[in-house]
Amino acid sequence: MKDESDQMAIPPLFRCPISLDLFKDPVTLSTGQTYDRSSIEEWLSAGNLTCPVTMQPLHDPSIIVPNHALRHLIDHWLRVGDLGPASSSPSPHHPSLVSLRNDLESEGVAVIVKSRGVQKIQALCEESPGVAGALVRSGMVALLLRLAFGGAESDTSGEGADLVEQALRCALSLLDHGGVEDINVLEEGSMLRSMLFLLNHSSGDVVKAGICRLVEKVALSPSSGVKGLHAKLGEDTALLKSIVSLLRQQPQVSDAAIAAVKSLCHLQPIRENLVREGALGGLIAYISLAKKSRQARLVLPPALATVEQLLLEVESSKEAILDDPDGVRTLVEMVFRVSGHETSESAVMSLTILCGDSPAAREEAIEAGVVTQLLLLIQSQCSGRIKTQARMLLKLLGS
């Protein structure tokens, strides 16, 4: 058994922020911060009405919840070994990991306790890649996704919403360490329907952006084991439509949505459904908003490249752009941008595809000022390849 006086060996997560000693009776305040019961009670009895770490006011100092998940972790740490940074690769069957799983899987455990357990998993992963690997091997990704989407339709506020957000964030972190095939759990029951419900009804941008990141990981996975999930995503047009609709929202969500749409376009069977569900209109709207942002240089190239890809590979994309009142004009505005030659190249290529067999598109592009934009591009410091493409488009317009 470990000596509790061995301060240097105590993982930081197991120390009380007030006393800096090993937790004996960890309790959590309404602010989400955990302290040793004796230390926080002494703080409160001195007349303090704020959280010592965050300094947030405690509207009801009597709300103190025992942190059982942390207590279990410390108990096992004391008995069988370190789960902190010194343990580079613990077994998936390590008692502490088993204890965490039991808390998260048990129907009798309160939502707030499960929330604390997920927070602890996230913190442990950030401290030690070895722990993250052990959690992946133990099937924790699938468990977290079940927590996030298993009962999402019944609770979109309060503790339930917090658990969804935390479980989704933690699952995404673990997926950076492997376990991609565990994503197949989304094929179970109503998991995809719960994702759709959250995209449409969640008030949290973090959840919507997280679902887009999850879809991106699914789409980009080369594993043959997720091909069935690829097919289900392609068939779920309501889910695709909801992701496309996020392209018109605030940057935190729309930037995640553009990554998801771009990734889905790698899957040939899904492209036509994306176009059918309004992807081109969403992309044009996204580009119109993104061109004014400080991150324009970073976010515009993938958006324009996705437009170009859809125009090349899905015939109905041309009609979708031409039917959009801002479609051609927005692409023309992207032809010459001082800070983005990659953006210029995609815009020129997209306009070449559009104007190739459409006199109406050529006329609209000329009216939008494309000739001036192309001449400026040719005189700029862009590559010879882009200048050649610009000259080809000028010649096409002249015809």
TrEMBL record:
It comes from the Eukaryota. This is Uncharacterized protein. It comes from Melastoma candidum.
